[in-house]
Each structure stands twice: as C-alpha cells, then as structure tokens.
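Q: Recombinase, please. Structure only.
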Amino acid sequence: MATVSAKIYSHHTRNDGTFNVKICVYHKGDRKFFDTNHFLAAKQLTPEFKIKDKFILRIIDDELQDYRKTISELGIKLNLLSCEALRDYLEAKDKAIDFIAFGRKHISQMLIEKRKGSAHNFNTVINSLCDYFRRPSVPIEEINSNMLFSYEKYLKSTRKIVRPGQNGQDVETTEKGLSKGGLYNHMRDLRTIFNEARRCYNNIDFGLIVIKHYPFETYKLGSAPKTQKRCHTIEQVRKIRDSKPVPGSRAELARDLYMLSFYMCGANAVDIYNHLDLITPKSTRWDYNRSKTAEIREDNAFISVKIIPEAKKIIRKYLGKLKKRYCSHGGLDTALYHGFKALQKLTGIKATEYWARHSFANIARNKCGVTKDDIQEALNHVDEEHRTTDIYLDRDWNIIDVVQEKVRIALAGKSDSEVLVENRLINETDDRVDHYVNDEPRNDRQIPLNDKAEILRYLQEIGYQKKQHPNFAEYFKYVKAICDYELSVIEVYGDGALQIIGLPIAVKSEKLAYWKENETTFDTLIIHPTLSELKIIENVMTRSRVL
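A: Structure for Recombinase:
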C-alpha cells in the first residue's frame, strides 16, 4: 500500500533560515520525495522538526488527503508504478506546468546531447513565446488552439523584440513577419516541444494523463511549403568568385566561404567553422562529420572531399583563424549575414552561404549532367529508399571526386561543348583514374598502358620543353608558356600516367623560370589518356586560359 507524509529535515535549510516541507512517497519498499511551496521558520516547528503551526498544518493535511485520494483512484494501476513513477505523477498532477521552464530544460538537455542546431531553433521559439505573452512564465494550459491562431498572426506581423546586448543591456530590434516557410518551421518546432512535454508528463501505458489538451488537433500545420529555389547560375558564381571586396572585410569573408563551400561540394558554414582545422598542410582530402546530421546517422554523417587547388588557397587563408576570430559558429553566421549584404551591394547578387550548396548541386545536375544519386552522395545526404542496401556497400569517394571535378571544369569558363567533351572523357576514364587518398594509391583497378613515347613526341611538337623533376629522377615535367603570366606543366610519371597543371610565372627572354608548386591555377586528375584523349584535354585546358 502506498502512503504519503510530510517531512522536514534540519539539514535542508535555506539561506534565510527557513525549511521546505517535503512530501515523502512510500511505495514498494522505496521512498521518494518532492518539494512543496511551503517554507517554515524554526519557531513554527517543534524541536523534533514537526509542524506546530496549526494553520499550516491544516493546509498540509488537506494536500495529503488529496494525494491519498489520487492514489486510491489509481486502483490496480498502482501496482504497475514504481515509487519514482508514482512520485512524479503526484507531483505533476496538481502542479501547474510552466511551458517556458520546461522548454528551457529540454533545450539544455539537447545541448548536452550536442544537438546544437535544433536547440537553437527551439530557443528561438521559447523566446518568441515570452515576447508574445510578455512574461517569462506561461502555464501549459495557455498553449491552446485559440492562442495558436492568434500567435500565428503575431508571427506574420512586424514586431519589436528585446534581447540582451553584448554589453549586458537590453537592445530593442524590429523583426519582420515570418515567411510561409519560416512560419511553418516555427510552429512545427513549437509542436515538437509540446509533444515532448506530453511525453514527459503523461504515461499513456498506465493511463496517467496530466496534460489532457492537445491544441494541434484543432490548429493544423498542413504540409510544408515548397522550398524556394536558392541557387545561382554559373555566371553568377563566377561573378561572386571574381568580385573584389575590401581586403579583410566581412564581404571578403562571405565571398571566400561561399566559394570554399562551392568548391568543397556544398560544405556548410558550421562545418567550415567546426572542422576546417582538421586539415593539415599535407592533407589531400578533408575528412569530417557533417554537424547537422552527425548525431542522428549511424555513419555519423562522415564524408571525405578532395582538396582541389582553388579550395586550398582559401583554406590556407583561414586555417586556424576562424575560431580565434569568432567564439562560436553563431558569431561567424552573424559576420556572414552582414558580409553577404555588403557583397550584394558590390555584385548585385543576393546570396547566403547556403546558396553555394544549392548552386553546386544545381550546376552539377543541369550543366554537367550528373545523376541525382551522385549529387546526393556529394551532398552527404541519406538515401532513405536504399537505406538497407547501403548497409552492404562501402562508400566510394571517387564518385564525389568525379562530381566535384565536373563542376570545377564547368566553372573554369569553358564553352558548353568543351564541358561536354571533357565530362565525357572523365566518364570514360573513371575506371582508369589512379586516385591517391591519404598518400596511398588505390590498386583496385587495372590501368591499361598508353603509348607513352607517342604522347611525349606530341608534347614536344606542340611546344613543350622537357625538364627533369627536381625531386624524382625517373619523372619528367613538360613545360609550355600559355601567356605572359601562366605556364602549362604536364607531369609525366614512370608508368605513363600524367597530370596537367597550370602555374603562374613571369616569362623573360623566352626563358622559363622555376615554377611555384603551391600556387597552381588549375589541374586535372592523374590520368592515363590515349593520344587522342590527351589532344582534346590539353587543348581544352590551355586554350581557355588565354581567351
């Protein structure tokens, strides 16, 4: 039989010298306690810490009678409850549930679980409710259907909000009304918090219902609005790339991180902030876990992206600096917000860092003809339809490399026909490409030999000069000036593999100076082309540089 009683303990004294009256629940040989709203001074207690104030004693006795009545009404369900579950039920049954307090507690737990993105969104909802009600505490009964319809109108309107500023003083700002998509996401998050409260306080299995109402049965969210297309044309991406913001400005930061995201298969700003420093000077790939889904995917949302020369220059510029400049990715997001505003004034193009991700996918699909499955792989999305099949398959990062290379070729400025030719060659030679990951060659493909001697004769016929590799005697470089400031260098390896690289250099008196290896302006994959393939690739790569 479960019993309840009032207890006061001498060691549970507050700073003001008062003692809290606690309810002791005894059930199945176990004892659990919960606090009441009653605090008594020493003069209201006997030396044995029993209540002697008759007024307070009557109130406590009435409350105990209510708890005993609740226990009796449970009937046979009582045997199914542990002492802790019974204590929680009695405590919550007649206690007003503060929805704001519950929301903040839930957000704190999410932060412990490293679900920072969702925690941020939920915090926005809770703060907005405080703005709407104009108080920091809201009983859950006030979150009803009528309130939701009124709250929706509030969110759609322009409104003033007050938040703590950096100097500790409150700052008033004006918020625009939410868009359809923003309103849907906001109310969806509010529903999620409400559902979590019901899950926490209600025990459906035992029929113990504390939160009896559900306003979202009347207020319907409907289906999510179609996401607005947020992508740029390839010409707009080039304009952003070639823009000249003030050095060191937030506009320059926005341009650089937009292009870094674009080059690295749509990496998010939060991942650039959290994981860019995983890259070392010797890294050839960027291996990281995508922050947005790392905690909810079995593979921890791991991805490996090749560091192409265009991205390497930006990485070198910001490596080890972002976390020193910004204390959190939220600070970086704020800087990017203002940076993209300034960049828009300079270029006339509206953008955010996330547009780079959409633009990468859009150009890969519509300009380069990449399949949706391969784009999904490059974006590090999960294919729900083939989730079971994916258990049996190892991920091939070569798929992502090919998507990345096709988009890179398209951005380089070649005509549509040249892009199609080069993409066709990439497709035809995918099974002959010798990729190096973590400095280890892949030996899982048989590479056919080409006519190396015939290729070398052709290179010299079209103006390339043979130079021995400075570090490896068995390797040679063939060098040709493309224009007054750029070289084309073809590195030829012992097995006939080769790579075409663009390098900046000053050419004086037709004498080629030594090139700078760490400043490549373009390059191809390491390939084994036939002579006819090499003619097309070399012509496409070098002719486009002097247009």
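A: Brief note, in case it's useful. The chain is about 45% helix and 15% strand.
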